[in-house]
Design goal:
2 domains; 4-stranded antiparallel β-sheet; binds S-adenosylmethionine; alpha/beta; Rossmann fold; about 260 residues; 8 helices; about 25% helix; 11 strands
Length: about 260
């Protein structure tokens, strides 16, 4: 019998590899900044892309296992690059980091990890406090409006299992299948990943819960924290947000 595992950070890192083009986007968006704060830095996937001699790049992460993996992976960078990164165990809803940052980034739908408008308000208030004058807040989210709009009035939508990846982990090949459950009333998505070892054996199940936002909610959310949302694109190269977009890429500054 399989049950939901306390996930292994390495397994998480192998599956959650980001969206195509995101590293180039964040590298470019942060290229002129001398200080960058990433909220929810996970295993340091984006931090490592931003590492650069002489910069201050801080990653904040709530999960000790992921932070440990980030530390290990960042230590493999060239010394001068590794020295640009500091890792902080903390909560994006309530953090205090010395200094202010020219960029504060929340990649890969990290904002959806916050479960209520109160949690989002607290997070954005802290962001506003940590933003340097003229600094920018930059984030990307998956575009939830189309699925949400399709579902309004329906109880829930269950999808899958759908094969989403094949991974090599612990000397085995694993096929990963995803099952998701969308609840439009709660604006909540629960995902279960079933990792099935190809050579036989018990599957490993991991789970993820997101509280998604509709794009119409973003502007007031940021405005209430004193942040003006200046751009909302539909991809990482500045294309417009359309019905068929998969992403919402936002940039905000202090009002
Ligand atoms: C979707 S992952 C993104 C990871 C990384 N930014 C990337 O792009 O690969 C969201 C991350 O936010 C972290 N997280 C969730 N809630 C958090 C909180 N309240 N404070 C800090 N980190 C949090 C999760 O543990 C996870 O690593």
């Amino acid at each position: 019998m399989s049950s939901i595992a306390a996930y292994d950070p390495e397994l998480y890192a192998l599956l959650h590899v980001g969206n195509a083009g995101d590293l180039d986007f964040y590298r470019e968006a942060c290229s002129t900044a001398s200080s960058v704060l990433e909220l929810g830095c996970g295993h340091g996937r984006v931090l490592r892309a931003l590492a650069s001699e002489g910069k201050r790049i801080v990653g904040l992460e709530i999960d000790a296992g992921l932070l440990g993996l980030a530390e290990r992976l960042c230590s493999r960078l060239r010394q001068a690059e590794a020295a640009s990164i500091s890792l902080v165990r903390g909560d994006m809803r309530d953090f205090e980091i010395e200094g202010r940052f020219e960029r504060i980034i929340i990649p890969y739908s990290g904002l959806y990890c916050l479960s209520s408008s109160e949690e989002r308000r607290r997070c954005l208030t802290q962001i506003r406090r940590h933003l340097a004058p003229g600094g920018e807040v930059i984030f990307d989210l998956y575009f939830a409006d189309p699925t949400h709009d399709e579902l309004v009035g329906e109880p829930v939508k269950e999808d899958g299992p759908t094969k989403v990846a094949t991974l090599r982990w612990r000397d085995q090949v694993w096929e990963v299948r995803e099952r998701s459950r969308w609840d439009p009333t709660q604006q909540r998505v629960d995902v279960i990943y079933e990792h099935v070892p190809k050579g036989g054996g018990a599957p490993v199940l991991t789970s993820l819960c997101h509280h998604y936002l509709r794009t119409g909610e973003l502007l007031p959310l940021f405005a209430n924290a004193g942040l003006a949302l200046e751009a909302l694109a539909g991809d990482f190269v500045g294309g417009p947000l359309r019905e068929e977009s998969e992403l919402v890429v936002g940039r905000a500054r202090a009002q």
